[in-house]
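Minutes, project huddle
Topic: does the predicted pose make sense with S-adenosylmethionine bound?
PN asked that the exact inputs be recorded in the minutes so nobody has to dig through chat later. Recorded below.
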Amino acid sequence: MTKQAKPGSRARRELPAPLAQLLERGTTDHYTDPLLYDFEYRDQADDVEWYCALAEERAVGRTVLELGAGSGRVAIPLASEGHRVLALDRMEPMLAQLFTKLERLAAAGEPVSGTVEPVLADMMDLPLDDASVGLVIAPFNCLMHLYDWRELLACFREVFRVLEPGGTFAFDVLLPDLEWLRWDPNERHAVTPFVHPRTGEAMIYSTNHEYDPETQICHIRIYYDRDEAGDGQLKPGREPEQTVHLAHRQIYPDELRALLGIAGFELESQTGDFLDLSLSADIEVQAVICTKPRS
Ligand SMILES: C[S@@+](CC[C@H](N)C(=O)[O-])C[C@H]1O[C@@H](n2cnc3c(N)ncnc32)[C@H](O)[C@@H]1O
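Predicted holo structure (tokens), as shared on screen:
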């Protein structure tokens, strides 16, 4: 049965209405079409290997809680390796897609050997008992959907509460790239033709973004244009078929260390690109491992 947090339990600070709307869209739009989400991130694999290796090392016989589990890109491989995974997300369509994929695997005679249990909840308010899980993971930038340090700290405190003493918390978020954040917000970048996985239509993907240094939030827009001419070229002045907002708060390395420390964690490592690299200007992803002390 799906575990659920109390409705309306999310306590977000009072924000100006336009910003509140942008943040709501920025944490919802991108996750309403899981088929498209899975298509866009189909080649992402380094992180899956990293989390599976960590679970193999630290979570055999213990429960794994995945925050922002989405459509199961990481949860399903973990369950395939025999783990019991609690897949927590605030978006029902993403969790529904995860279970469709599990059913398909079972129907194809390849059921996962572990288990996946859905938890429809917010990662700042975990509907789980104290000290009930051995490993908590938060893959692929999901913590960047917490939009100020208070929200991040609330989440870290919840993770600390539900972890067994000696348990591990591991996550990854982008390393802020100041040059990229300052790109021209009016240009379209990453222009890529593709065939829509659900509609079969020829489309063009592109993005741009605007960074607010005060809130540290990067407001990304993902545009989907119809490729009517079939030439993969955007037509100036034409409105896109769909615009998706994605809001990512940039989290600087020292802020992470400070908040993890305040929540009570001991930092084990904070390295780059899932390769144990030190955090230099060329690194895209900061991957963090920390532990809840035994006493
Ligand atoms: C980038 S996706 C990652 C999904 C999956 N872990 C993966 O690696 O593909 C981020 C996920 O976090 C979820 N999410 C964002 N904010 C959340 C919150 N406050 N509580 C729970 N889930 C949240 C989104 O719904 C989305 O499924």
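Observations noted during the meeting:
- The radius of gyration is 19 Å.
- The chain has a mean pLDDT of 94.
No decisions taken; revisit at the next huddle.
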